[in-house]
Write a structure and sequence with these properties.
single chain; 461 residues; alpha+beta; Helix Hairpins; five-stranded mixed beta sheet; 13 strands; rod-shaped; membrane; EC 2.7.13.3; HATPase_C_sf; kinase
């Protein structure tokens, strides 16, 4: 029931369905107004006809008749008339009355009640005229107007009802089809924005219209974006691969040069600095190659279910001595077993190692590094109580080679979090950077082990 209600709510919120409902409402309102106008016009004509009949009936009485003669005429007409349709009553000056109904005066108001026979249930339209020292009252039933109302209600039910239902049914069917196409476009755009540049809309079997043109445009844009991204990724990998070997050779040559120089002096210091810079460049290219390989998705072929908690405990045991030597405190909160996720354990261990080293590098001595593993949903977080990352910079620090201004004097090359982001994206994990109050908390939320982990290149989706 919950899924059906959610599906119905989503359908009703879609623009095509709302447009269909609005169109049906307009059709229903137009029919209602036309039928209502016709009813009011016919009702007014019928009421004028009844009143004209009453005026003619009053005019048929002799104005010079005596009270006794008028009473006799009224009595004769009353016996011949059905009080359910026509009422004739004469109220004499002495309070006596004759006719086929009873009349009561309350000020200027006249109330008609049953005499020897019952009256009609539809009510009456009456006219009164002073005559022969008394008051002559004639009335006709409003049954024709009631019948007209019933006729129009039946007409409304048998014409407007089916019209609305048919229009609503056809409109909803068309709107649902349009809504599915819109949902398909939206889902494809969400996949593209999440980094899945292979997402495409299927060919639209419908005749060319606005949505099919939009879909074709989305596919063209995605194809160009994928081609440009793949080209950039390939160029990056090629540059990193081609330059790594010459840099490594330069490093070897510098080490050879350094071995031939005296231990002290400006030439030796210059050679040491050049060797350090070359080593730094080699590490940058190595990290860029690693990111390119991860984003290429080759490692997903090695995915298997594994115990996230066990992998994290192994990394913590490895880093515990070095963290304590650096004057920091490292803690771990994890269940004894699990959670089980699907992925490559060595890559998750590398991501955790990068996060720990990042915390060591950017927090003062004595800071805490808290690592936590949760099972529902499977997640890994690394938090510290250092200076943190400003809110406006949190998306930027995931970019390659981006560094905060205050971090430019510390070791590093700005690729650590980029590598974590690539690993998270490959595993379909959601990577978030949060305020730890004080400090930074980096959290990776993984899908369940049975989830689809084909991977996405954007872990922040």
């Amino acid at each position: 029931m919950g899924a059906r209600a959610a599906s119905l709510t989503h359908l009703l919120r879609s623009t095509p369905v709302r447009q269909a409902l609005a169109l049906v409402a307009v059709v229903a309102l137009a029919n209602l107004l036309s039928l209502g106008g016709a009813y009011l016009t016919l009702r007014a004509d019928l009421a004028r006809s009844i009143r004209a009949d009453l005026d003619a009936e009053l005019a048929s009485f002799d104005l010079s008749a005596t009270p006794a003669a008028l009473s006799a005429i009224v009595r004769a007409r009353a016996r011949a008339a059905d009080p359910a349709k026509t009422i004739t009553v004469f109220l004499a000056a002495d309070g006596q009355q004759v006719g086929n109904a009873r009349a009561t005066l309350e000020g200027s108001d006249i109330h008609l009640g049953p005499g020897d026979q019952p009256l009609g249930a539809a009510g009456y339209l009456h006219e009164a005229r002073p005559l022969a020292g008394g008051l002559l009252i004639v009335a006709e039933s409003l049954a024709p107007i009631a019948e007209l109302r019933r006729t129009f209600l039946s007409l409304l039910a048998f014409s407007l009802g089916p019209t609305v239902l048919i229009s609503l049914g056809v409109g909803v069917l068309i709107a649902r089809r349009t809504a599915r196409r819109v949902d398909g476009i939206e889902a494809t755009l969400n996949r593209l924005s999440a980094g899945d540049l292979s997402a495409r809309l299927p060919p639209d079997p419908a005749p060319a219209d606005d949505l099919s043109r939009i879909g074709a445009g989305v596919n063209r844009l995605a194809a160009r974006q994928q081609a440009a991204t793949e080209a950039l990724r390939q160029v990056t990998a090629d540059i990193a691969h081609d330059l790594r070997t010459p840099l490594q050779r330069i490093s070897v040559l510098l080490q050879d040069l350094r071995a031939r120089l005296p231990d002290e002096g400006d030439p030796a210091e210059l050679a040491d600095r050049a060797s350090a810079e070359v080593d730094r460049a080699v590490s940058v290219f190595r990290a860029m190659l690693e990111i390119a390989q991860i984003e290429g998705g080759q490692a997903s072929a090695r995915f298997q279910p594994f115990d996230l908690g066990l992998t994290v405990r192994q990394v913590v045991e490895l880093y515990q001595p070095s963290v304590e030597d650096a004057g920091h405190r490292l803690s771990l909160s994890s269940p004894e077993t699990g959670p089980t996720i699907r992925g490559e354990p060595s890559l998750i261990a590398q991501a955790l190692a990068n996060l720990v080293e990042n915390a060591l590098r950017h927090t003062p001595e004595g800071s805490r590094i808290d690592i936590a593993v949760s099972a529902d949903p499977p997640a890994l977080s690394v938090a510290d109580d250092g200076p943190g990352v400003p809110v406006g910079e949190r998306d930027k620090v995931l970019r390659r080679l981006y560094r905060l201004e205050r971090s430019r004097t510390t070791p590093g090359h700005g690729l650590g979090l980029s590598l974590v982001a690539a690993i998270a994206g490959l595993h379909g994990a959601r990577l978030t950077l949060e305020d730890n109050g004080p400090g930074l908390r980096v959290r990776l939320a993984f899908p369940q082990a049975e989830g689809n982990l084909t991977g996405s290149s954007d872990p922040t989706r």
